[in-house]
Structure formats: C-alpha cells, structure tokens
5-aminovalerate aminotransferase DavT
Amino acid sequence: MTRSTAQLLADRARLMGPNVSTFYNDPVHFVRGEGVWLWDADGRKYLDCYNNVPHVGHCNPRVVDAICKQASTLNTHTRYLHDGVLDYIETLTSTMDASLDTAILTCTGSEANDIALRMAEAVTGKRGIIATDATYHGNTSLVSQLSKSNIPSVGFGLGQYFRFVDAPDSYRHPDPDGTIFAAQVAAKIDGLIKDGTGFAALVVCPYFLNEGFPDNPDGWLKPVADVVRNAGGVLICDEVQSGFGRTGTHLWAHEKMGVVPDIIVLGKPMANGHPVGGVVAGCDIVAAFRKGYRYFNTFGGNPVSCAAAMAVLEEMDAQGLQANAKTVGDHARARLNALAAKHDVIGDVRGSGLIFGAELVNDHATKSPASDLTDGIINAMRARGIILSKLGRHKNTLKIRPPMPFSIKNADLLFDTLDDVLTEVSR
Ligand code: PMP
C-alpha cells in the first residue's frame, strides 16, 4: 500500500500511538537510499547531511552483500559456536587499547549503556553514576535516568543514583584544559560518598555530541579521568555517535580526548543500520558483570549482525573513510567559517571530521540562542533537498553528521544552499 503524507501521519497516530515524533514541519517520506543520497516517494533526491547510522553509505553494497550471504546461510544466537562473532570482536578490539579485549554484543546503544552501568556497579560495588545535564544515552529504565532534560515522569525510582554536571560549552563557558569539568565531577563524587550512595562511574560521550560537540582540545578528558580513577570509579565512554572514525583524526574519540576508558559503549553506525550495539571492556570487568548478572541477548552477536558489522570495518578500510572524514571535515569547517564572516547569525563554528556545525545566535555579545531561526533554517534546507538537524542545550546548533563517504562536492552543495537560506532568513 502506498499512502499519501496525510494518510501516513494519520495511520502512524492510529497504529503507533500518539507522540511518535517526526522531523520537519513537512515530514519527509523516504523510499530509497544510495550512498549519501535519499529519494522521497515523489522521486525527489535529497543530500543526506545528517544520518550517521548508514556510516559507509546508504545501502552500501559490501554490507548488503554480507547480510544477504549470511542470512541465506545461517542465523542463530551465541549459545551455538560460530566464527563470526569471534572474528568480529577480535577485529574490533584490535583497534583499541590492549586493556580493552572483551566485548558483549547487543542490538542497541541503550542496551549497551545499560550493561555498562551494571558493569560499573558489579566491579565497584557502588551505584552512583555521574553524567552531563544535556546528554542522551538511551531509553531503558536505568539509562533513561541519564538524560536530565528527558527523565521519565514515571519510572522505577532509580533517579536516586544519578548526579549531573554542567555539559561542557566551549562557546559560552570556556574550560580549555578540562579542569573545571573535572572539579565539578570531583564535587559530585564527594556528594555521592557523603550521602552513602558511593561512586561507581562517570559516563560521557568523549566528543559530547548530544551536548553540541564543544570545541574541546585533544586530551581534554585527562583531568576528569584522573579524578574518576582516584575515587575508585570507572570511566565509561559512550562512543555510539563519536566512534568509528567520525572525528577524522582518530578512530575513537576517547583517543582524541587522551584517555583509555574502562568501558566503551558502541551502537548506531556499527553495522550501517542493521541493529548492532556493543560494550567493550577488560576481561576482569566483563567477568565481574557475568558473575553478578546472568546475561544473554537473543539477537546480540548473531551471525548476520556480525557479518554486517564486519563489512562496515572492511569498507571503512577499503575506502579510507576516516581519512575522508578528515579531509572533507576540514574543508567543511573552512566553508562554515567563510559563511560565519558573511552571516552574523553564525556565532560559533565547531566540529572535527564529519561532525560539524554552527551555533546560531541573535547577537554576538549576549550569545542569545537563535533557536526558532535554527528551526526555520532546517525546514528551509529540507525544502531545498538538504537533510540536516539541530541539537545542543538551546537547540540552536546546526548538526551536520553525514554518511562517511560524503565528498567535497557534497559539502559544497550543502554550503552553497546554506548560504542562500541564511541570506533569505536575514532579509
Ligand atoms: N548513546 C548515545 C550517545 C546516543 O546518541 C544514543 C541514541 N541517540 C544512544 C546511546 C542510544 O542508542 P539506541 O537508540 O540504539 O538505543
């Protein structure tokens, strides 16, 4: 059945329940994707500057082929022996510090974060968790407590274990070496110890993507990692968005930020849209978790998922996609800086590799966020066939995070169009 947009919206509310969100004032109905391109039901072509899940490109032939081959051979679960899961974990962990040698595969980033928090509890014997006040780490009962702006109004009373520090904000509250952030975390740890909760873990995205990817210099997490370790806690780096070469300079953003986490959480781009997430940690942490919690995931680590995930790593290597992220990302930021010189509304340009964007403000002196205008720009870009979004505490930061094969030509189309839209909105 092919429905009209109006019918799709009505049927979504009827069949999926109310409050299922869509992007855009005029929601878009995609029917096909290839590389960095998407097509809607009317055959209109869009440049995808937003989706990081199709990491190696929409419908990447190597990934599609790997899925089809394995799906037509065997798909079971990890209670039977299979090479695929072992080959994948071995390849994945070989890209990380030698201390991170063991993994549990899941289907989502939420599950992976849930495991990471429980690992922290199992290994420290404590429950106090610290996160930033503008983050998102997923949707389980436990993990949803980490999103301060989004904490469920109902729930299982888990909020008592969570504490929040200010999300870093290089534009409004500079903290060039991460010591202010570290001091805030130290104060929260003291509080957790004093009130008897105890401290288990700090969980952060090492590039703070959901917070608006502040311009933290390389090595910025070192001071806070010391604070966490000195207090006997574990450092969890949620690389669901920041990993797999997206920052261009490093395969993993924690390397860029100068730390070796105790636990790494993975998801989104891991298998190019096939649902795969994972937790990587040292064998001792995984052993403590398995002792405390019986854990089995029916779909996690199945042969088809592992084939898809392996194909992503192979494709990244074959196409040099991390290097591409660096080259195209550098070009993109140069173009954004040129636009900032021309359009007053751009207050700050940030990013690394193929995560970049601009914070839009009403006035450079007060830095008052131009949140409504940002929304208008995103809708105007959609009308011109460019898909992007916004994020950050004030929802005024353009979020540009395209599939990794994004080219300089693609970036030029994006910024030529953005130039037109900014000129139009400033009239
Ligand atoms: N961690 C981060 C940093 C995320 O951005 C998200 C999803 N946006 C998640 C975890 C949750 O992943 P999932 O939706 O696969 O559960």
Summary: The chain has a mean pLDDT of 96. Residues 13 and 20 are 7 Å apart (CA to CA).
